[in-house]
TrEMBL record:
Transmembrane domains' residue ranges: 21-41, 53-72, 93-114, 184-202, 209-229, 315-335, 370-392, 450-471, 483-500
Native species: Hyaloscypha hepaticicola
Keyword Transmembrane helix assigned: yes
Keyword Transmembrane helix appears in the UniProt entry: yes
Keyword annotations from UniProtKB, A to Z: Membrane, Transmembrane, Transmembrane helix, Transport
Entry's Gene Ontology cellular component terms: plasma membrane
Pfam families documented for this protein: MFS_2
Topology in membrane: Multi-pass membrane protein
Domain of life: Eukaryota
Protein name: MFS general substrate transporter
Molecular function GO labels: sucrose:proton symporter activity
């Protein structure tokens, strides 16, 4: 017997609406995970540089992230789809990833102490501590990239599993809000002298930061796993052959043609857009700090080593705090003004809160158009940022990009979740991976992550080529980095053109 109610004019049974607190608990883990990503991307490189890692070696270290996302997450997704654990399909992988992430994050922060301890053995040569420190840091950095994959894939799959189809947009909106809240939190605490306030969490700023973020991740994952219950999969719903899991990438190659056109277009847009997001996320901090530092040194009238020049770095941090604030604000505003689907209007026609929100919605603004416009706007930001003539203009450009970030963190996941949920109802997607003509939820989430991870590898190679060509022209480093950022314009425009092909069928969304 179904506990849902039937949508008028439709044969599909709709589940009861989930409350706001349920959706917050469902998506809480993503907020904690984003804190880890922000610390990794914004503070990991300066730390690795401080222990003596060269820039080429750091590039190889951080390339582990895209490679792990491209290959490890689809593997974990297929494995979780076939899991018969009494704890559910997703939660065991989320908890396992959480343990690995916390161990690797703390190990990375204390890599210097661990390296020095290892170098004190009787068989160690004198002066081996720096080499041991680098080896330990590289090991934990790779483990960190691996540990985040089952968390991310498990949480995204759990949202699709537990949120009703007609609330996939709302659930993805809450995921986006908590992600941006985690982003903002991490940037703010990164600017605070934490060892002075929390000396028991570590002796250095990076140690204290990693310890605090580990606590946040623990609480957020515990919230999701405790309050979101999963049904125990029946044995006949699973197919746990290790051979089938090991060959899951081969299965994807054969089954990709069976994916709906809507999902294929979403993957195309994501592939193109992440070729533009990668240089922005990885190189904008470096670029902005360089021009800010140069501006402050120029304002002194000489290349001074006065402590005042460090204000350049502080200004860079302020720009990304503004970027996160704009993104968080847009995460709350945009879902309220985007046109609701006909299905939502039928399901929530007696909900007074929904009716009030519906009055503020713009009739012409659909999710497809919002995503397309945000990509065009992001292309403009990437082109204009290296041309900015003042710090204020550059800061404003980065803040505007926060609006595009909010759309990217919400719309593709909402569209994908709705499409998977719809196909699950129509085509019985819970059949075993090896016996069904369709891919299951975890596998599709993994393929979606593959579409975001592979372009990051390509963008890294592209950036290396630009550095190699322009670096030989005796150009300043900020000019070279500016061209790396500007190279993301064309992929962003291409992604917007792909987004125009998405179905505008708002009656189904």
């Amino acid at each position: 017997m179904s506990s849902g109610r039937e949508c008028p004019g439709s044969e599909v049974k709709l589940e009861e609406k989930k409350g706001t607190w349920y959706l917050i608990a469902l998506t809480a883990g993503l907020g904690g995970l984003q804190c880890v990503f922000t610390v990794q991307f914004s503070y990991g490189s300066p730390y690795l540089s401080s222990i003596g890692l060269s820039k080429p070696l750091m590039c190889l270290v951080w390339l582990a992230g895209p490679f792990a996302g491209a290959f490890a997450q689809p593997f974990f997704g297929a494995w979780s789809d076939q899991s018969s654990s009494r704890w559910g399909r997703r939660r065991p992988f989320i908890l396992l990833g959480g343990v690995l992430t916390i161990i690797s994050l703390l190990g990375l922060a204390w890599s210097q102490a661990i390296g020095e301890s290892l170098s004190r053995t009787p068989h160690s040569s004198r002066g081996s501590a720096p080499t041991a420190t680098k080896a330990v840091a590289i090991f934990f950095a790779y483990l960190l990239n691996l540990g985040t994959q089952p968390i991310q894939g498990g949480l995204r799959s759990l949202i699709i599993d537990k949120a009703p189809r007609h609330q996939q947009m709302e659930a993805s909106a809450w995921a986006s809000r908590l992600i941006e809240a985690g982003n903002l939190f991490s940037y703010i605490i990164g600017c605070i002298p934490l060892p002075g306030f929390l000396p028991f969490l570590g002796g250095t700023h990076f140690q204290t930061l990693c310890s605090l973020v580990s606590c946040v991740l623990t609480v957020s994952l515990a919230t999701t796993c405790w309050f979101i219950a999963e049904a125990v999969p029946e044995q006949n719903e699973t197919f746990t052959s290790p051979h089938s899991i090991r060959n899951s990438p081969k299965c994807y190659a054969f089954k990709l043609p069976t994916i709906s056109n809507q999902i294929k277009i979403i993957l195309q847009v994501q592939f193109a857009s992440w070729m533009s997001w990668f240089p922005f996320l990885y190189y904008t901090t470096t670029y902005f700090n360089q021009i800010c530092t140069a501006a402050y040194i120029e304002s002194l009238g000489e290349a001074s080593t006065s402590p005042d020049w460090i204000n350049g770095t502080k200004a860079g941090s302020l720009a990304f705090i503004l970027y996160s604030m704009v993104s968080l604000g847009a995460g709350f505003l945009l879902p309220r003004i985007v046109q609701s689907s006909q299905e939502d209007k039928l399901v929530f026609q007696s909900d007074k809160t929904f009716l009030l929100q519906a009055r503020a919605q713009l009739a012409w603004l659909t999710m497809r158009r919002l995503w397309m416009l945000s990509l065009f706007l992001f292309a403009c930001c990437l082109f204009a940022m290296p041309l900015a003539s003042s710090l204020i203009i550059c800061t404003s450009t980065i803040a505007i990009a926060g609006l595009c970030r909010a759309v990217t963190a919400w719309v593709p996941f909402a569209l994908l979740g709705h499409e998977i949920a719809h196909s699950t109802e129509q085509d019985s997607w819970d059949e075993p991976l090896g016996e069904s003509q369709n891919l299951t939820t975890g596998s599709l989430v993994g393929i979606h992550n593959l579409a975001m991870a592979l372009p990051q590898v390509i963008a890294t190679i592209e950036a290396a080529i630009i550095f190699w060509i322009l670096g030989s022209q005796n150009l300043t480093e900020d000019v070279v980095v500016g061209w790396v950022i500007r190279a993301g314009c064309l992929p962003a425009v291409g992604a917007a053109l792909f987004a125009m092909k998405l179905r505008e069928d708002i009656d189904r969304f």
